[in-house]
Predict the 3D structure of the following.
Amino acid sequence: MASLLSVSCRPLPRRVAPAIGAVLHPFRRSSSQKQPVDLPDFNTDVDVHTHRLKRPERPPPPSPTHRWVGLKGLRERTEGSLIPETLKEMEESEEFKITAENLKKLGQVKLTREERKRRQRALRNLGIPSFREFLLRQLMENPQEGLEDKHQSLKKQAIDVLQLNIGLYCNQACNHCHVESSPKRTEMMSREVADKCLEILEKSPSVHTLDITGGAPELNPQFRYLSAGGSAMGKKVIDRCNLTVLVEPGQEDLADFLTQHRVSVVASLPCYSAKNVNMQRGKGVFDKSIQALLMLNERGYGRPGTGLELDLVYNPLGGFLPPPQCELEDKYRQELWDTFGIEFNRLFTVTNMPIKRFADFLYRRNELQEYMNLLVRNFNPKSVKGLMCRNLLSVNWDGRLYDCDFNQQLELTIPRTRLGRSAKQSTQGPSPIMHPDLRPKGLSVWDITSTDELLGSRVVTDNHCYGCTAGMGSS
């Protein structure tokens, strides 16, 4: 996963642009935007509300439910759970029906394997080698400062971020979701695994950030336990939030909890228009997202001088690269302030990864090969130094360890043979405790006591990794 740029965008008038916090997002350490890079397809227009997808057949007339009707009555319109509407849309969607049928017929392992074969066939047709071979060749031709040893780019550095995917249950079912979350998923992290994660966090001095994601992580019973635990250790805690969860029944005090523990919110908002958001994320999502942002602003999130960070995330509607991050941030800031009076700290743009639901979307439109070619053609050598897989450790809901959240969804675990230098130097010590259910599945939290033990271990890569080095990368 590539580090997206942490450079500040040009200042705007005070009423439009809240002061940006001095502490940068832990994933945005790359300085790649400071220098021009020749990326042939990095030209997406910042007017993202005008982006449209071509359709295989003539679309039906636009539904009036997708039109923004204003702030009046917003609180009343956003009452009640989103889950029944999400389940209804899943039952009516042909794409969800096909996926469910394939899952029932083949099982998740075979489906993931077939998805990988499709990407590999696309690359083979284009005459493109494996990602590892391609990356090493590119670094040899385009040496990067700090990566004099090109092989070191694919090894773990000191771990800065411990990222926990604590479950796949979600009140939404977005069509781009790389973890395939929905109200039908039941996977949840247990208290036993949560306790072990906090134990590792406490014994890992290099880790400064606890990054909690899902699904909708807030709907997992361990979310508040982990957030409070990380905050008590003095770590920065990040909540990867879909926003609509803040107005779900039973979560009425969630915004106050986040404020109390000063949890940083990184929130998905793929557009500032109702039509595009509802198309990508489901009916009613835009209204609830705006209401949630207003609630966070009321508590000081995104406002100057509060230290309560509210960052937004944009991802493209279809198979194209995102617009330049700084210009799009300016556009979001203007649109959200002028229309809703909403403030935020930063906007991050991410490249859609060709895996899971988005991979199915591309395949059914016969666009997978074209998209893989787009990613390779826009390889950015300056993104490599900031790849998150180098300084992040991803933990699955069941405790298994991965180099990134994308590898996690593809079941690319960290092999036991890849414990780093620190672990190998301490092999004379007692053997690690191993959870019996996870013994054949790669490393898990039960195999380590500190993230330091992974220092120098080789990062697991595969053909989806082209997405992390295309344009300005992915997070």
Q: What stands out?
A: The longest strand covers residues 236-241.
